[in-house]
Amino acid sequence: MNNKLIHALITCCLLFTLSSCEEDPKLSDNLVEFEAEVAGISADEETLAININLSREVSSDATLTLSLEGSGVEYGTDFTTDPASVANVISVTIPEGETQGLIILSKVEGALFDGNESVTLTLTDAEGKLVIGTKSQIIVSFSEIIVSTATMDIQGGGPTYPNKVFIDLSANRQTAIDRTTWDFGFSSSTDFRVILNSSNGMMARAIDKTDLNAVTAADTVGFGAQLSLSAVFAAIITDPTPDWVPTAITWIDDPTGDLTNTAIASVSATDTENKVYIVNKGDGPGTPATELGWKKIRIVRNGTGYTLQHADINATTFSEIQITKDTEFAFQYVSMATGSVDVEPATARWDIAWTGFTNSTDFGSGPVPYYFQDIILQNKNGVETAELLIANVGEYADFDGADLTGLIFDTSQINIGSKWRSGGGPGGGPSLKTDRFYVIKDADGNVYKLKFTALTQNGERGKPAIEFALLQEGE
What we know:
Layout: H1 3-23, E1 30-34, E2 38-40, E3 47-54, E4 62-71, E5 79-82, E6 89-94, E7 100-107, E8 118-126, E9 130-132, E10 137-141, E11 149-153, E12 163-168, E13 173-178, E14 184-187, E15 194-196, E16 203-206, H2 229-236, E17 277-280, E18 283-284, E19 290-291, E20 294-302, E21 305-311, E22 319-323, E23 331-335, E24 339-341, E25 352-362, E26 367-378, E27 384-389, H3 390-393, E28 436-441, E29 447-454, E30 465-472
Parallel strand pairs: 1-9, 2-10
Antiparallel strand pairs: 1-3, 3-7, 4-6, 4-8, 5-7, 8-10, 11-30, 12-13, 12-25, 14-15, 14-23, 16-17, 17-20, 18-19, 20-21, 21-22, 23-24, 25-26, 27-28, 28-29, 29-30
């Protein structure tokens, strides 16, 4: 090859590189704004988490400056904040790689409130290549609020759906929980039921033993090719389908939320009736997904509570965790690594939740476990929902309280489920369905209409958005 030709090829490569760089789209502004514009801290709450969200991760530490103004309350006497306010100014540092800032507002012990007091926080400056968005101010009332209308960007965490997000419509509040922080939920009701972490694709299978120390790897032969969502999927596309596949649906909790049909049987008052279970903890976030590992467990009653025994498969000793029921919460959550953990808000403090979820589907030979992203669950304790098609009831904007007459509500936790978005497939990727909306009645009788306004943010899944409005206030 002669020098002229080499020079020409190098020049072409350089021109291509330069033109490609010029054509690369610029990143959109990294917006910073409050999660909500109004919030309330009720009489039975001592603290309130105020989230400040970014569109994406910051490439280096960023500092936010906020002003604080109280109405009917005095800083230090009635309330405090973390970070602290200095001369009515709060500085919040967002570390490199993070997408959220946090302020904790706390009542001062012994302070009394009439319910008409409030604090206003305003974003005044954002360093680190951040741009202040439209939700630049939040008003926090020292009373329980019932929001009339709001929009919300759900903080699912991105395409690996690392969070499960609980949403309280009337309070305009969301609580995002790392889905890998817990393994089991223990029912607070009069029965003794235990749920698996369906957000991680967890599965459990009983074996015919009641002594945890007597269980070894020999008791799990063949489980690796069966007790996982990926194994089930591999099996159903095999011809012929293996005989064990119809049994796989019993290794997950009933997707509807029916506590009489959980993978782990009701915990008996007779210890010898409580068997050992082999548990595949499923997968955590990551690309590829992070395998969370296998355990053997056994659960017995401890008076009005539970005892969880757990160990590695081949261990000859085990650890125990004691669980006490708390009826303010539907479940008490436990991690085998860390013990009791806070996950689900108090029963009266959430209505719906966004999450990845172990659902079921039918490929022609009966229901099998199958994982769905972007599932909406509803609180089984007093929350009811109804799906409405625009073709039948008219547009979302025109639907009001007078249209509620005759509406039929459903109590299945997956009544909304994945029906609000398409599932992708040969026709393309998942997308938002715009031909429907939902009516949600909370446990206090407040009735909201709700529509999904986005499945993604800037093309990224795990960040959906909703809009909702109050149709009827509870009595």
